[in-house]
Design brief:
Layout lengths: L1 E7 L2 E5 L2 H16 L9 H9 L7 H10 L2 E7 L5 E7 L11 E4 L2 E4 L13 E5 L7 E7 L5 E8 L8 E4 L10 H12 L10 E2 L1 H6 L4 H7 L1
Length: 220
């Protein structure tokens, strides 16, 4: 789930899509240029007078600084509503976060892609190399509420390469719930994919969170 937020001064407008957010930003810019904020004391007045105490700051300069301060961000949430990532957007709606893209099997992989929240208490931390014979490891956290958090990509030693999803969590650290079982079962059958990837579930994950094969067959 995604939301787009437009922030100016102490105001935050939340929108369902980028097009609506852009309209909100354009409205704020129009208000600034039409002098709506000219008679209000804003942080820009103070900042400009502080930086240039002996210079006369024009109204146009203050308006320009105000427009530059407007930010648009994309906020990404898990299915249960946990805010997991905030992405800054430029004036055209493109991501400002630094990207390192590679192409594997015609799939673009952003090596800097990860959530801001990478662990929830009781979650199961797992690793997998989803591309055959390529030691690029994906790390995720399967949460007790069934959400999956993206912990990032990393190049590893070829001797540690494994194409099955395995966990480094201890059994007493993981809170196994029906929601977690549903997610693990869905990954196992392919009913659930993580960001487009089908992850083969390994034995260490199944030891902590057993899969009900018969139940999964009904769901898938």
């Amino acid at each position: 789930m995604e939301k787009y937020c437009v922030e100016f001064l102490e105001s935050v407008k939340t929108c369902d899509n980028y097009e609506t957010a852009k309209l909100e930003k354009d409205k704020i810019i129009d208000d600034i240029n039409n002098g709506v904020y000219d008679n209000e004391e804003t942080p820009f007045d103070f900042l400009n007078s502080f930086l240039n105490p002996d210079m006369e700051i024009t109204k146009e300069e203050i308006r320009s600084n105000a427009i530059s301060s407007i930010t648009v961000t994309k906020k990404m949430y898990t299915a249960s509503g946990i805010l997991k990532r905030i992405i800054n957007l430029d004036k055209d709606g493109k991501e400002l976060n630094y990207e390192r893209l590679i192409i594997i099997d015609d799939i673009p992989i952003n090596l800097k892609n990860k959530d801001d929240v990478v662990y929830i208490d009781g979650g199961m931390i797992c690793h997998v190399c989803p591309f055959f014979d390529i030691p690029l490891q994906l790390s995720i956290c399967i949460c007790p509420n069934g959400d999956i958090l993206h912990r990032g990509w990393d190049w590893i030693n070829i001797s540690n390469w494994n194409s099955y999803l395995h966990t480094i969590s201890k059994k007493n650290e993981v809170l196994v719930t029906e929601e977690m079982k549903n997610t693990v079962g869905g990954l196992f059958s392919g009913r659930i994919k993580f960001e487009g990837f089908k992850l083969a579930v390994g034995g260490t994950v199944q030891e902590i969170c057993p899969i009900d094969i018969a139940e999964e067959e009904k769901k898938s």
